[in-house]
Amino acid sequence: MTSKELFLVTGATGKTGSHVVRMLRELGLPVRAMVHRADARSETLAELGADVVQGDLLDLDRVSAAMKGVRAAYFCYPIDPGGLLDATTIFAQAASDERIDAVVNMSQISARREAGSHAARHHWLGERLLDRFPFVTTHLRPTFFAEWLIWQWSRDSTGGVLRLPFADGRHAPISAVDQARVITSILRDPVPHDRAIYRLVGPVEKDHHQIAREIGDALGEPVRYESVGIDAFAEALRAQGNGEFLIQHLTNVAQDYRDGVFAGADDTVEVLSGAPAATVRAFVEANRQAFAGEGQERAWRTVLDR
């Protein structure tokens, strides 16, 4: 391990990255936050004391510059046609050139060789690529974020509605904050987690009927789940203007969900971070204001901002 103390966080204005920056700064640790564009969110990171740098993860020179003096880095890249594997290669080479100690990689629970989703298979390939380099690598495979419940949220005359193509499949939602605690912990002490793959799930597994009821209990109003067909879901995504790469990913993910790929609940988050993951009810109560409006129309446009 080196004597360097600087931590690099990519996707630093995203759902997990922004929390990681905040947590590291609260510990008094130096952080370089790499952002795609300068905006109010990046200004907030600068106010926390982070060294904010703007750059594209597909730009080797920019990434190499961001790696200067870095001890450990968090790598997070959005679902984008053709981008992930190039970005992973560039990131890995820059990290190796600068002799950083460790990379924590945001993957996904559906990542596997036989995945139907091109994006999920790319995540699996990205994991394998990173493992070929000399630095410590840790791969995180979260189930659906609890934040997706906000983005999928809508209302009609009878109350709240979740309309999704997941049939009676089950999962244990996990919040971005809980994931960030895991990421922060591993960045600070990466060696015990070398080449580890962690499935990140919440503490209680539920189907969406149960999730809807728990949201309703927290909000004090009726909430129901309506299952839609995968083909209908794909057409809705096209009507929203989403690209075919994303649609191919999300429709295959929907089938994976029905097949149990996203299922499971355990205490991994608590073991790795020292505190248990939040339940659905606790998440809703902590984010009550976010459920005041509707999220359905923007739901699948914002899932990429991790």
Automatic annotation (TrEMBL):
<dbReference type="Pfam" id="PF05368">
    <property type="entry name" value="NmrA"/>
</dbReference>
<dbReference type="InterPro" id="IPR008030">
    <property type="entry name" value="NmrA-like"/>
</dbReference>
<dbReference type="InterPro" id="IPR036291">
    <property type="entry name" value="NAD(P)-bd_dom_sf"/>
</dbReference>
<dbReference type="InterPro" id="IPR051604">
    <property type="entry name" value="Ergot_Alk_Oxidoreductase"/>
</dbReference>
<protein>
    <submittedName>
        <fullName>NmrA family transcriptional regulator</fullName>
    </submittedName>
</protein>
<feature type="domain" description="NmrA-like">
    <location>
        <begin position="4"/>
        <end position="251"/>
    </location>
</feature>
